[in-house]
Design a protein that fits this description.
Blueprint (H helix, E strand, L loop, with lengths): L10 H4 L4 H9 L8 H9 L4 E4 L6 H11 L3 E5 L3 H12 L8 E4 L5 H12 L5 E4 L1 H4 L2 H8 L3 E6 L19 H8 L4 E5 L4 H11 L5 E4 L7 E7 L3 H11 L4 E5 L3 H13 L4 E4 L5 H12 L5 E4 L12 E6 L6 H8 L9 E7 L1 H11 L4 H19 L4 H8 L16 H4 L4 E3 L1 H13 L6 H8 L5 H5 L3 H4 L14 H10 L3 E4 L5 E4 L1 H8 L5 E3 L20 H18 L3 H4 L2 H10 L4 H5 L6 H22 L16 H12 L4 H7 L4 H13 L7 H7 L2 H13 L5 H8 L5 H16 L1
Parallel strand pairs: 1-6, 1-7, 2-4, 2-5, 3-4, 5-6, 8-13, 9-11, 9-12, 10-11, 12-13
Antiparallel strand pairs: 14-17, 15-16
Helix pairs in contact: 2-4, 3-4, 15-16, 25-27, 25-29, 32-36, 33-36, 34-36
Length: 739
Amino acid sequence: METPVDPFLDAASLVGSSIHDGLARFFGFNQFKGEQEEIVSSLMEGRNVFVIMPTGGGKSLCYQLPALLQEGTAIVVSPLIALMKNQVDAIRSHSDDPDIAHFLNSSLSKNEMLHVKEAVATGRTKLLYVAPESLNKKENADFLRSVRLSFFAIDEAHCISEWGHDFRPEYRRLKTIIEGIGQFPVIALTATATPKVQYDIQKNLGILDAEVFKASFNRANLFYEVRPKEDALRQVVQHALENKGRSGIVYCLSRKKVEEIADTLKVNGVKAAAYHAGMDAAQRSRIQDEFLMQDVDVIVATIAFGMGIDKPDVRFVIHYDMPKSLEAYYQETGRAGRDGGEGHCIAFYGLQDMEKMEKFLSGKPIAEREIGMQLLQEVAGYAETPTSRRQYILHYFGEEFDAAAGPGWDMDDNARNPPESYEGQEIVHHLLKLVDATGGRHRSGFLCDVLMGRETQETSTYAGENVAAFTGTGESLAEDDQWPGIIRQITLAGLLSKKTEEFGVLSLTEEGRSFMASPTPFTLYKPKPMRVAQTRDTASGSALDQPLFDMLQALRKKEADRLELPPFVIFSDVSLEEMATHYPCNEDELLMINGVGSSKVRKFGSPFLALIKDYVEQEGIDRPGDTVVRSVAGRNASKVSIIQKLDRRMSLEDIAGAQNCTVDELLGMIEGIVASGTKVGLDYILEEYLDEDSVEELWDCFMESEMGTLDEVVEEMGDAYSEEEIRLVRIKFMSEVAN
């Protein structure tokens, strides 16, 4: 139950209040969530605190409330300007004093910087958000030494660890910087940290004595699903259309792919926007605000998006590319369903993508390469596991989970559609004996090589009697590609332990030794096939319904005669082929057909939709479930830019120069724009080339043409007009008649 927030709160009015009074008066809550109360109390008592709490668990309140209740200013170290702004706006929304929270970073002007420092010096500011780079500047450190501070909060603390998913070297200097300012309690907070990352953070910050609060990583309302990366773009569009009006995030690893997917979504009627580091700060801020205000439904982004975005109703998170670590995956999927409602997390997994990331790591220093490879192996393990994905994630973070009855046990694709199982007692016993015989000093790859009889430098080095007794023995027990998955299943069951500090070395656990001494039945699962990504051939015509295509052509001729227009003006053959493949039965579906714009639907669509609908009903056709995805004919940004320049009556040469292309290439782009259903204004250009009678002559030629192709008219006109002049009239003709 919430209590109304006092609209006249200022910073001073809360200092000295009890934590429950402060919680109710400022945040409007009557009770704490999870371990928030213990965390706040510990920090208020001057102790160092380490908090591991999933996204949406209420981490920010753990340092915001103590800052409001204590004398002085709390310094919050945050990695992103957008994150700082979002947090500051959230705090200010609870108070009538805008000076209660500020950020100090490179985005501020000199006057703004002076105002912030004055508000801190006079005690009006209770929370000051800073980037580690700003904290490192001498003038800022000198200023902070001169004012009263309460404590330091290190948000997104995983950035400290080289094993973390978002490592930032500047974070590793924080201990030295803080000690240079003074002695203060430190609270470090992160949504993701394996035991190794946790230790690395605490050691680097000098807070090994910190009280550790670790909430469960289990987000029972999230559904986890991994799909083979085949025709992934179509599936992304289909999911977005099926969830139209609902908020979602699509993550990609490259800016180019971000732009491509965002453009494709927009062309297919989804309110989408791209977001990446190549955009300026103002543009990124605007896109975030549009997403928060639901002016945009789907954000297609690189990994930076979402940090600090307090949007509780994100209903789906799609990873078009697998992330580089499970920490990153968990953090990014955690942005779904923060309100406790449903959240669908889909990841596309292709072996080619993993090979690209491994190749990228090959150029890194050896230590960084080994860490990166280990993290990638965990990602591959998650994607390939035939068992509970939730259990796999929680096991990675050191948390046990009952895959048969734990909260959210059925909320993943493997739980709902389990793979084929088989009895694996002999296989497990044999593997454990190999691990024991080789002293628990090797990684999964070495064990697989021995079992399959593959000679490598490592197997040759350890080719003693212990290894020789097992060499090649795995061939009769399991197929080559199954052993990595078998090892992951045995590890997940707790019979083997992975030493992350030794890059994934596997050793026997007590449970593993007990199994060796007294083997018991053990269920193993066959992996679901994961095929290499491949492009679907949409132009093969294999699914074309020829009788329907013939009927559509006949209808087009009939309509052309009735309207006294050439058939190609109404719909192209390519458009008819798609109609005869996907059976669009309403205007929205017809708009998805390439070459069909809204004007064509209004002008010509009704009889074609009626024909297709009748045909589907009469023939009892089960329409394909796949969404028809309209492709992007060129870059949307280029399209808009060209249309704007035509509206400003720029010459073709000037537009071509601005687009960094030839005039011939520009005309091709304009033809593509018109073919997609958009009108363009070329009259001012035509006036420079042709008189009114010449335009009319060429216009009539296109009206009488069978196919309406450029070659057809060029041949008929001979040398009377240049090809460029004919192209310009054809563009005008198609723009005005077809659209």
